[in-house]
Specification:
Helices cover 35% and strands 21% of the residues. By secondary structure, the chain is α/β, with parallel strands linked by helices. It is globular and about 50 Å long.
Length: 184
C-alpha cells in the first residue's frame, strides 16, 4: 500500500449539498472516509482535492454548469472538505481551479515524491472531476482503481457512462467493499 494513494475529488460543502445520482452525497462521503481510513492504516497516501469555486472561470459552452458570474461569491466554507470525509493531519490537500486535479497543481509532484504508482479515485462528480483527473493520471503513467460507489454525479446516466465505458479502459472499477477487502 505504500505506493498507493487514494485521491478523493471535491468532497466539499458546495458539492456535497447537491442532489446526486446514483449514489447520494452521504454514501459517497462515507465510502470515501472508509477507504481513507483503510489506505492510511496500511501506509498509503490520502489526498483530498477541492475546487476553489469562486475562482472557476466560466467557459463558453452550449450548456454551462458553472456558477452564474453575477451571483454573490460563495463563502470560503463552500470549498472546505466536509468533516464526514475523514480528513486527518498528514493528508495532502490540493486546491484546483478546473475540473481535473493535475493541471496547475502540485498533485503529480506530491505523488511522485512519495513513490506512488497506483491511484484509487473517488469523489464528486464522476464524469467531471473524477474522469478529468483519471485521464490525466493515465497520461502520466499511474495505474488506476475506481471506487464506483465512492463517486456520483448530477445524473445517474452520466455516472454510468463513465463507470461502464471510460473507466474500464483506464483501470479497474470496483466497489468500496471490494477495495477494502483488497486493502486488507
Amino acid at each position: 500500500m505504500e505506493t498507493t494513494a487514494l485521491v478523493l475529488i471535491d468532497l466539499q460543502h458546495s458539492n456535497v449539498a447537491r442532489t446526486l445520482a446514483p449514489h447520494s452525497a452521504q454514501q459517497v462521503v462515507e465510502n470515501g472516509a472508509r477507504l481513507a481510513d483503510a489506505v492510511r492504516s496500511k501506509g498509503g497516501t490520502v489526498v483530498y482535492v477541492r475546487v476553489l469555486v469562486n475562482e472557476l472561470r466560466p467557459q463558453p459552452a452550449d450548456v454551462s454548469i458553472s456558477r452564474d458570474p453575477s451571483a454573490p461569491l460563495l463563502p470560503p466554507q463552500a470549498w472546505e472538505i466536509v468533516d464526514a470525509a475523514g480528513m486527518q493531519p498528514g493528508d495532502i490537500v490540493i486546491d484546483k481551479r478546473q475540473w481535473g486535479a493535475f493541471h496547475g497543481t502540485s498533485l503529480d509532484q506530491q505523488l511522485r515524491r512519495r513513490g506512488i504508482k497506483t491511484i484509487i479515485l473517488g469523489g464528486i462528480a464522476t464524469n467531471f472531476g473524477v474522469e478529468s483527473t483519471a485521464r490525466a493520471a493515465q497520461d502520466l503513467g499511474y495505474a488506476l482503481m475506481f471506487a464506483e460507489d465512492a463517486m456520483s454525479s448530477l445524473k445517474a446516466e452520466m455516472h454510468q457512462f463513465s463507470v461502464q465505458a471510460i473507466f474500464p479502459i483506464l483501470g479497474h472499477v470496483r466497489s468500496t467493499a471490494a477495495l477494502l477487502a483488497t486493502i486488507g
